[in-house]
Amino acid sequence: MSKHVTNPPVAAIQPRRHVEHDLLLAALPHPILVLGEDDRVVYANPAAEIFTSCSQPMLKRQRLADVVAFGSPLLALVEQVRRTDTTVNEYGVEIMMPRVEGTKLVDVFSGALPDQPGLILIMLQQRSMAQMIERQLTHRAAARSVSGMAAVLAHEIKNPLSGIKGAAQLLEPTVSDEDRQLTQLICIETDRITKLVDRMEVFGDERPMQKVPINIHDVLDHVMKLGASGFARNVTFACEYDPSLPAVPGNRDKLVQAFLNLVKNAAEAIEAGGEAGRITLTTAFRPGMRMALPGSSARVALPLMIEIVDTGGGVTDAIKPHLFDAFVTSKRTGSGLGLAMVAKIIGDHGGIIECDSEPKRTVFRVLLPLQLADRAAGRQRPPSSQRKT
Asked: Is the pLDDT of residue 388 over 50?
C-alpha cells in the first residue's frame, strides 16, 4: 500500500537556514512553480504570478489543471516526470491559460525535487524573450548595412541629381510648351529621389546621441494629439499608463519620430480594414528583461515597456520575419524605411522592439532602459490624457 504524503508548506521546501534560496527564486526572471503530489501549486515566484496573471495566494488554491487550459501539454509533461522520476525538458511548448489572452510559446524544464517526495519543480522560459533579442540583433545588422548604403548614396547620387535638375531648369525656358512638361517632370522626379536619399542619410548618422531624462508619457501624449488631429482623426485612442514610471534617457524628438511612425502605421492598418478601429497606448514596468551589450559582458535592464496596440488586419506571416528590414513594406506606395528607422531609433536608445500580430490585434512592443539617477525625482507625473476612452 502506497504511503500517503501530505503537501508540506513552503517552509518545508526551503528550510530556514536556506532562506536565501527563496530570495534567489524570487529574483529569477523565469516563471517557477512547485507542485504537490496532487498537482496543487505549493509555491510560485513573482515571475510566475506575472506569467499566469494570478497572485501566489490564488495560485496556491488551485491545481495545475486549473491554471492551464484543458489538454495542455504541460499536464502530460508533469505526469511523465511523476511516472519516470526523471528530469524532462520540452522545447517550444504552446501554453494557453484561461486568465491570459493568446498562446505563449515556452521551453519547459521540470523534475522532482530531491529529498522532497511528491514535489515537482517546473521552470518556464518564454521563447519570445530569446527570439526578441535575436531578432533585434538582426535588425541592427540590417540597419548597419543601410547606413553604409546611405553614405554611398549621399555622395554618389545626390550630387548628380543636383546637376540633372539644374540642367532641366536651364532648358525649361528654351523649349516648347509640350517639352516644358518633360523638363518639369525631370525636376519633380529628382526632388522625389533626393527626399528618399535624405531619409536614408539618417541611417548613416552614427554620432553619439545626447540623452536627457524624458517623460515617456509626454512623448506619447504629443504623438496621440498629432494623430488625432490628422491622419488618425477617425480612430479611437485609449491610454493605459503607469504614472509611477521614472524617466527615460533619450532624445525627445527622435522618440516622437519613432512612436509617431508606429501610430501612423497602426492608423493605416485600421483604415485598410475599412472599419472603425482603436489604438491603445500602454506603458508598464516589466522587471527581469535584460540584454547583453554587443562586444561586452555587461547586461542592461530594459524594464520600461511601451505598447502600441491596434485593431487592424494584422501583419502577414510572410512579412513578420523581415518587418524591421529596410525596403520591406506591404503598402503599394510605401518606401519600406519607416519601421527600419523606428528600429534604429529604439536601438540607439539602448532598447529593443518586437511585433506580435494576429487579425484584429497587432502589438508593437518597445522595451527601454530607465533613468537610473534620481529615480524619485524623475517620477513621471500622470499626463492629462491618462484615461480609458
From this structure: no
Q: Report residue 256 as a C-alpha cell.
A: 516622437
- The chain-wide mean pLDDT, for the chain, equals 77
Distances 296 to 10, 20, 50, 292, 368 between C-alpha atoms, Å? 39, 29, 30, 7, 19
Q: What is the pLDDT of residues 85-129, one digit of tens each?
A: 888 887 767 788 877 776 777 888 888 887 778 899 999 987 655
CB 142, CB 126: distance < 8 Å:
no
- Identify the CA nearest to 359 among candidates 311, 308, 307: 311
In whole angstroms, give the CA distance from residue 325 to residue 316. Answer: 15
Tens of pLDDT along 204-243?
Answer: 556 667 889 999 999 999 999 999 988 888 899 999 999 8
Region class of 336: left (phi > 0), else alpha (psi between -120 and 50), else beta = left
| The model's pTM | 0.52
Structural domain spans, the chain = 10-127, 131-204, 212-368
CB 235 within 8 A of CB 270: yes
Q: How far apart are CA 379 and CA 365, in angstroms?
A: 22
Tell me if domain 10-127 and domain 212-368 are identical in fold: no
pLDDT in tens, 342-363: 888 888 888 888 888 888 889 9
153 compared with 2, residue with greater pLDDT? 153
Domain spanning 10-127, CATH class: alpha beta
Sign of CA dihedral 214, 385, 267, 330: positive
Report pLDDT digits (tens) over 314-342: 888 777 777 877 666 666 555 567 788 88
Backbone angles phi, psi at 183, to 5 degrees: -65, -35
CB burial readout 161-195, b (16+ within 10 A) else e: eeeebeebeeebeeeeeeeeeebeebeeebeeeee
Cβ atoms of residues 88 and 110 within 8 Å: yes
Grid coordinates given for 8: 508540506
pLDDT at 146 exceeding the cut of 60: no
The closest of 129, 133, 124 to 97, measured between CA atoms, is 124
Query: 278-285 and 236-240: which strand pairing?
Result: parallel
Pick the CATH number of 212-368 from 3.30.565.10, 3.40.50.1100, 3.90.190.10, 3.40.1350.10: 3.30.565.10
Cβ–Cβ < 8 Å for 286, 354: no
